[in-house]
Each structure stands twice: as C-alpha cells, then as structure tokens.
Amino acid sequence: MAEKQPPQSEHFTLIDERTGQRYRQSLLNGTMGPPAIDIRNFYHTAGVLTYDPGFTSTASCKSAITFIDGEKGVLLYRGYPIQELARQSDYMEVCYLLLYGELPSPAEKDEFVRDIKHHTLLHDQLMHFFRGFTRSAHPMAIMVGVVGALSAFYHEDTDIYDPEQRMLAAYRIIAKMPTIGAYAYRYTIGRPFVYPRNDFSYAENLLYMTFSVPSEDYEPDPVLVKALDRILILHADHEQNASTSTVRLAGSSGANPFACIAAGIASLWGPAHGGANEAVLKMLMEIGDKRRIPQYIARAKDKDDPFRLMGFGHRVYKSYDPRAEIMRQTCYEVLEALGLRDDPLLELAMELERIALQDEYFVERKLYPNVDFYTGIVLRAMGFPTRMFTVLFAIGRTVGWVAHWKEMISDPETKIGRPRQLYVGAEKREYVPLEKRPSPGKRTWSRFWGGGGEK
Ligand code: ACO
Prior knowledge:
three-stranded antiparallel sheet; globular
C-alpha cells in the first residue's frame, strides 16, 4: 500500500453566476479517496449555504479509521482489507486495531483481552433496569435504555478530556455490550441472567450468556464461535454511517460517552440501517415460497409501493458489498456444519438474489445484496431469534462507535456539530388572536404529518 502522504492543499473555484464572483476554496486531499472542497468559511465569505440532504457529498470530518471505495467494493480497517481480517484475525485483535491504529503484538493482545474481560460484569444495581421493561420489549429498546443508563454509573469519574479515562470508558462499553445484549434477550424470555466467564473468548461468552441455562453445562460450538466472531469483525466499523455519525454528533457537545453510544444504538435500530438484517428475515418468511418472488420484485420496483427489497442496495457500495461476499461463504459453512444446507429459507434467499441480480431495475441502480442479506440467515441457523439480529450488529459496531468518538474528541478541529438548513416555512407574519382566526374547514392530521389521509 502507498505510504501515507501529508495532506496537500490545492484549490477548487466556485463561481456565483449571479454576480460573476469567484470563490477559490482549498481542496483537501486524504491518503486515498476523492478530495474534499474545504467550505468551512464559505457561508462567511459567499453568504450562501451548501445543500446536501443525507450528506451524500459531504465529508463531515477527517478520519484515519476506515476507508471504503464503494465503486470498487473495497473496505479497509486502518489500511487492512476486510477479507484479510475476516480470514486471519479475530474480533479482539480488530478492536485493538480500530482503537489503537496498529495490530497488537502478542503481549499487547494478551493485555488487551485481559483488560476487556476485567470489565464484562454489570453493576448489580443496573440489573434493576432490565426489570423495568415489559417482557415483550424489543431487545434493542432495552439496549438503548440500559446502555444510556450506564452514563449514570460512570459520569462523575469520566473526564472525556483525559485520555486514560477515555480509554477506560471505551474498554468498559466494549466489555459490557455482550452482557447487556444477552441479558436483554434472556429477560424477554424469562431466563435467569448468567454471569460472563473469563475463560471464554468474546464470541464464546456472547453465545454462553445468550444460550446457556444455569442447570446445565454449556460448550460453545467452535463453528458457531468462528462465525459469530467473523460477523462481529464485519460489523466492527463502516466509517461515517448513520449510527457512527449520530455518536459523533452527540459526542461533539461533550456528552457522556455511554449516552452517545445509546444514541448510536437508537440510530442503528432503523430498518434502513442495522434493522435490515431483521427485516430481511421477516421479508423472506413473508415471501415464503420461490413462486411468490416475482410478485415481491414487482412490488419493490413499484414507486407507489413503499416496499423495498430488504438486504439490497447500499448508500456507499455501488458494486458488491465485500462483507456480503464473506458472509455468503460463512453462511454456507455454518449451514453445512449444522446440516442445514437444504434450508428452504436459504434456497429462497439464493433464488431471490439470482433473480434480482438479473433484473434490469436492480442492475441499472447497482442494487447488490448487502451484508445483512446473509447475516440474518446465518444468525437464524445459529439459533438467534430475529429480534436479536440488530443487537448483535450493535455489539460488533460498538468498537467502531467508540473509536470514532475517541478520534473526534482528540481532534483539535472538532466543533459542536450544527448543520444549517434551507428554510422553506412561512415568512414573518402577524399573530392573530384566537377569536379572530377563521375556521379552516376540515383540518386532517395528515395535513400536518403527511401520509395517505385520515385513518
Ligand atoms: N429495493 C428496491 N429499490 C431500491 C432499493 C431496494 N432495496 N434500494 C434502493 N432502491 C432504489 C430507490 O427506490 C431509488 O430508485 P429511483 O432512482 O428510481 O428513485 C434508487 O434505488 C436509489 O436509491 P436511494 O434510496 O437513493 O439509495 P440510498 O443510497 O439513499 O439508500 C439504502 C440506500 C437505504 C440502503 C437502500 O438501498 C435501502 O433502503 N435498502 C434496503 C434496506 C437495507 O438493506 N439496508 C441495509 C443497509 S446496509 C447496513 O446498514 C449494514
């Protein structure tokens, strides 16, 4: 790989066609990827804003953690291809890499793993939070609440401007996420909580705390451990996605890191983001039969139908998602090992993939299967209930959120995140006293909230 070059400054000129005024803006170059026009002072000098809903053309920060080339299907963590990491590394090593920027030596790794294990237990008082939820609560709702509650346990002793305390907060949250995730699930099915075991690896512990019962021995299946570890690696980071940007935005005000991670979990929950793996499985079960696939493909293409083919498309990847390829292979390995190769849901998924990849609508729009398309099938085969899928994604992504939060806090260019807007509301107007206001006729809720009409 090319050696890291210091960013060079070039220029890019923007012309105001109304006045002919030219604005020469600095162009910032990263180590890889497209350059960015530095518009930090643009509003101040030109008096106009830039408009970019969804931030499709906006670099919100400089980051040295993850690189994606969506056209070529490249994903690098700290410069290392995701395929290499998934094949040769393990999740703890990847956590170290994302947090520290380098792969650990054997001694560094041992120490890191030991330190993480040291923080896996939850404060006994935190257990009461689980009991405040209904048994039917979605485990992601419990995650948002309990992780947010961690901020109450570690607030006074968390000075985010002290690097050592930042590191301690990072270790605590990475260590406690599997415990919280497993407990969120166990609570909803009425099983007693089991404490983590320090002789188990991160993925082993997650399986153990989720599936074991106190009255029986539990030996994690090595095939499942490997697959789960790989899923955690593949989800560990993905640069400035919605949940990571949420964590950064929340953290930019100096907020408590645990509260910021809770905000990230909330953002991840949506079906357009981390909730997609759950949505994929629901969709496959709803389709139910290969013969019904054309009907669903037609619905996905119909602009008047909100239905989308879950697990297809990606904001950044406009060729195959490299994680999807690894997951596809893992999917076969797991189903083979569990004797589930003839799983009808997998057959249905493969047929859906085949048809969608040949369909002009999907080909034209470069809508390939994303990582979530296969993750759901693997997790289901492993015995995880659908509602746990996004929880597992959140556990894997925590290190990414924490690495970005840490990078942001230590970046001298960080400012509180505060986007501007293009105001399209009413102009300044006079207040009309209540008794003088005319009746507007039938006023429906949909006039205010959008939607198809009064229901
Ligand atoms: N099914 C049908 N049509 C789709 C799909 C889909 N899954 N995804 C995009 N399209 C269509 C859009 O309707 C649009 O069509 P148009 O150009 O005729 O208007 C075109 O493809 C471009 O779509 P956008 O919405 O502009 O793409 P965007 O980058 O904003 O969205 C997203 C990306 C949200 C992931 C979208 O593809 C989607 O909703 N996919 C399904 C949900 C999913 O799998 N999410 C997981 C993302 S991966 C992750 O979080 C790990």
